Amino acid sequence: MERDTIFISHATPQDNEFSIWIASRLEMLGYNTWIDKEGLLGGERFWPTIQKAIENSIKVLFVYSKNIITKDGVLKQGIENEIEYAKSIASQHGLQDFVIPLHIDESPYNLAIGLPNINHIPFNDNWAEGLKQLLKKLEKDAVPKKSMNIESTFSEWYENEYISNCSITSKKELFYTSWWQVKNIPQQFYMYQFTNAAQAKAIRDLNKDIPISLQSNILSSFDMKLNFTVLRDGEQIEVLPENTYTFSLNSQSSYP
Predict the structure, then answer these.
(1) How far, in Å, CA of 36 to CA of 7, rounded?
(2) Is the pLDDT assigned to residue 171 strictly greater than 80?
(3) 5-165: CATH class
(4) d(Cα 71, Cα 147) in Å, to the nearest integer?
């Protein structure tokens, strides 16, 4: 029997997001994957179908996270059935590294008996880096790819069934952005033109607590109270700009 399928075992629904992500990436790269589509949609899981899929698989990717155990600290029944059956298939047919745990969170390595001794591929820090390691392993173990002109059944199912059956959920989420709120907009903007770039840099370095832009011999800032007194050879010297330009919000400028 030719084995050409990568079986993905995961906790439903908690780890659906990662499982769909890894399945879609592998499919796009030409691998044939099997994922419990009925379970993803909240339907009944048929054990004979899952058994058949594991029997036809060349690898079983075990999505390893805190979600694989119950509140009582024992392995969830569905997960345990899949992993134990996969281990029996591997033993029966002499399949090396048949089960590959994908570690996606900070959970300890001893959640599942018999798996701590198996090399886990870390996805907990960075999914992309984890995928790179997984692809190296699949290539090393000569996991076959399907013909690229064969349409992906997973992609077709994802677009036509999963997306249409999973409605948008209204809930609050944290939004992370590099933008920040500007409560007060400065009324004026100042540009200071010095004789040379060295003078401009000296004044910029002297006013480190003030946001200042340095371009050649010109300083730009929203602050008009810059310190122009430089200490040189124990003597205080005032280094004044040759020209100071003031710009208001209405784009009109005034010159000294």
Answers:
(1) 9
(2) no
(3) alpha beta
(4) 43
For residue 29, the one-letter residue type is L
What is the per-residue burial (b if ≥16 Cβ within 10 Å, else e) of 38-64? ebbeeeeeeeeebeebbbbbbbbbbbb
Contact 216, 200 (CB under 8 A): yes
CA atoms within 13 Å, Cβ hemisphere of 36:
29
Measured N-to-C along each axis, helices 77-93 and 47-55 cross at an angle, to the nearest 10 degrees, of 30
Assigned token pair, 71: 């509140």
Q: Is the pTM of this model over 0.70?
A: no
Q: What pLDDT is attached to residue 90?
A: 94
Which residue, among 226, 231, 225, has the nearest Cα to 204 in the 3D structure? 226
End-to-end Cα separation, the chain, in angstroms: 88
pLDDT of residue 147: 65
Specify the amino acid at residue 128: A
Instruction: Classify residue 135 by burial, with Cβ atoms within 10 Å: 0-12, 13-18, 19+.
Output: middle
